[in-house]
Amino acid sequence: MKELYKQLFQKHNLTTNENEMGTYMDSLQESMAIGSWEVNLLTNTATWSTMTKTIHEVEPDYKPNILEGINFFLEGYNRDLVTKLFNRAVNHQEKYDTDFQLKTAKNNLKWVRIVGYPVIKDGVTVKIIGALQDITDKNNLIKSLELKEKLISTTFEHAPNGMALINLKGEIISLNKSFCGFLGYTKEELIGFKVNTLSHPEDINIIPNNIEALINGTLDKFKCEKRYFRKDGSIIYCILSVSVLRDEINNPIHFISQIIDITERKFAYKKVESLLQTTKNQNEKLLNFAHIVSHNLRSHSGNLEMLLDLMAAEIPEQTKNDFFPLIKEAVIKLSETIQNLNEVSNINSSKKEKIKNINLLQFVNNALGSFRAEILETKASINIDINDKTEVSIIPAYLDSILLNFISNAIKYRRENIKPVINISAKKTKNYIKINIKDNGLGIDLDLHKDKIFGLYKTFHRHEKARGLGLYITKSQIEAMGGKVKVVSQVNKGTKFTIYLKHDTN
Amino acid sequence: MTQIDSTCLIDDDPIFVFAVKRILKSSHLSENFSVYNNGKEAIIGLKQIIDSGKTIPNLILLDLNMPIMDGWQFLDEFIKLKISQKTTIYIVSSSIDPADFNKAKTYEQVSDFIVKPITRESLLEIMQIKA
């Protein structure tokens, strides 16, 4: 480099054939993207070569001066440093060679390397001569490589996954914090260590069994669940993924192993699984119990009913007392209760009932048919707002019972002296057909009954016909069809039940 | 009202047997009864009747849940007897399981499925259809 500069700078000392030599130097400078400059301290003037002007992006006839020259450097650090170095070259006769950032006449940012060299005559600095090289491209490349390198190493070091480079013998070359953290060792303990030896005995062959395929390229990545022993002897459950790094001629250089700690997830999963099993068992027991109770009780209550029936027919004189009617009533209620229990246990146990697509409007109209008498008697007005194309996917017997239940409730729990108005509407939403059944009846105090409204044997009204089973069965039936039910209600304003049913299955 | 010559009850519940007997006797619909406590007894009994050349009951009321041999097993054995005489079988059970209803339909020998408790009216109705 020194020789080059000498050559370049010699130009300024030449007196003969200056023009010819200048042209030669300019073309040389241009091909190397190096310009030269000179500051004459005696005359306080500056000279720039053509290339120097090109780098600064000024016109060829530009006349540089010292102040303007300095002002090309970026304000702040760059300008201060170049000023300082220039002054030192003048005052202390020190040369300099430093990279700077400058802004060209066309406002482009450039990286330049600047060499400054004091010319001394009789112990006095008379000139500073120097060179200027555009290193923007080179610098950008280095900077971006540096950045990439930094990005990769930061990512590697701080990744939440454990990451390690492993040589072809299975020894760790380098690894990150998470990898150490997962296994409970320090970096120093693990570097050079054969990581597979930490495997759980049952998992120790997973890697050896697959490594051949990875090396010869039939597998480009290998992933498995694997257990390792931590330093403290505990087991860590991991998802391990191994890939191969290859050189330019495709030979494997080393492995990149990544591990994710799934121990907590694993335990949570096991817990959920065992809870699920417990729930399943209990549910089964409960269903069995309900089944047995309802069936066995049924035959007994049936016998009682039959005997009372027979008694009334054959020995009527024995039934004319205070007890017989009461016994009979108790037996009937017992049978009813058992019947209800049966229905509930059937809904919950059997999905044997076939799901069908039906036209909702037709179905609702049919259901309303059985309320003709009540509607006439109570002067109820029933408004239906259902699109005649709406189809729902349901078990007909269930939807029938659901509609009967809600409609009969709406009529049954009307307010005295207020004409019952029942609005039945349906809307299609993304996942469901939403059916609203809204009345202007007694309403339910939801603050008081919210949790119990769909419970078994809860009644909210002191009504002679109130039975607690209806809503429980209704809810079970809706859920058995994959739907859900919601309620809003205000005492003495009315109640709105919203039933969510599945679209038709097509 | 035609009287039924003979009714066969296959049921392990003495109360049910008692009640049915009383109803049928008091209404003079059927005077003769044979009662078996389970399917096996019934098969043995019916075989004996056939072997001795007598007429088998023309109405059979069959329970489903019984010890030793239940109603379904009885039906399967009964079919194997290949009886040429005409008889009508009603299942009378406290089961309300739809699966049982459907299964009953697969036996052409079974006329209907009656859910207990049986009432005087429902019993008389059966007898009239039969008669």
Molecular structure report:
The complex is a heterodimer of chains A (506) and B (131). Chain A is of the alpha+beta class and 506 residues long. Chain A has four domains: 2-136, Beta-Lactamase, CATH 3.30.450; 159-261, 2-Layer Sandwich (Beta-Lactamase); 267-349, Orthogonal Bundle (Helix Hairpins), CATH 1.10.287; 356-502, Heat Shock Protein 90, CATH 3.30.565.10. Chain A is 45% helix and 25% strand. Chain A is built from 16 helices and 17 strands. In chain A, the strands form four sheets. A five-stranded antiparallel beta sheet of chain A has the order 2-1-5-4-3, with helices on both faces. In chain A, strands 7-6-10-9-8 form a five-stranded antiparallel beta sheet, with helices on both faces. In chain A, strands 12-14-15-17-16 form a five-stranded mixed beta sheet, covered by helices on one side. The longest helix of chain A has 52 residues, at 263-314. The radius of gyration of chain A is 46 Å and the shape is elongated. Residues 462-467 of chain A have low confidence and may be disordered. Chain B is of the alpha/beta class. Chain B has a single domain, classed as 3-Layer(aba) Sandwich (Rossmann fold), CATH 3.40.50.2300. Chain B contains five helices and five strands. Chain B has a five-stranded parallel beta sheet, sandwiched between helices. In chain B, helix 2 (39-51) packs parallel to helix 3. The radius of gyration of chain B is 14 Å and the shape is globular. The termini of chain B are close together. Chains A and B meet through helix 10 and helix 11 of A and helix 1 of B.
What can be said about this structure in brief?
The complex is a heterodimer of chains A (506) and B (131). With 506 residues, chain A is an alpha+beta fold.
Q: What gap, in angstroms, lies between the N and C termini of chain A?
A: 81 Å
Q: What would you give as the CATH superfamily of chain B?
A: Response regulator
SSE-based structural type of chain A: alpha+beta
Largest sheet report of chain A = 5 strands, antiparallel
In CATH terms, the superfamily of the largest domain in chain A is Histidine kinase-like ATPase, C-terminal domain
The number of helical segments of chain B is 5
Which runs of chain A of at least 5 residues are low in confidence (pLDDT < 50)? Answer: 462-467
> Strand order within the widest sheet of chain B?
2-1-3-4-5
**Overall tally of domains of chain B:** 1
The largest beta-sheet of chain A arranges its strands as: 2-1-5-4-3
**Amino-to-carboxy terminus distance of chain B:** 7 Å
The number of helices of chain A is: 16
CATH fold node name of the largest domain in chain A: Heat Shock Protein 90
What is the averaged pLDDT score of chain B?
Answer: 86
**What is the helix content of chain A?**
40-55%
CATH architecture title of chain B: 3-Layer(aba) Sandwich
Count all strands of chain B and give the number. 5
The overall strand count of chain A is: 17
In the CATH scheme, the class of the largest domain in chain A would be Alpha Beta
